[in-house]
Design brief:
5 helices, about 80% helix
Length: about 70
């Protein structure tokens, strides 16, 4: 999962990449569940970016809490 995230974050500034990777390390189960939801939406025919945005919106409060 970390490798996949690194490739998705290649255009994100290095300091933000590190913060995101740290969040994943501290909360692997939460991010695994998010990845599974994204995959399910993609398998259902949605474009990857749309699926990711929908799942992030669904988990907005938890993501904001983790980033504080």
């Amino acid at each position: 999962m970390k490798t996949a995230m690194k490739s998705q974050l290649k255009n994100v500034p290095k300091d933000q990449q590190e913060k995101i990777m740290e969040l994943i390390d501290k909360n692997p189960e939460f991010f695994k569940q998010m990845a599974e939801k994204v995959k399910k939406k993609i398998d259902g025919g949605k474009p990857q970016m749309t699926a990711m945005m929908e799942v992030m919106q669904e988990n907005k409060e938890e993501l904001q809490r983790l980033m504080q």
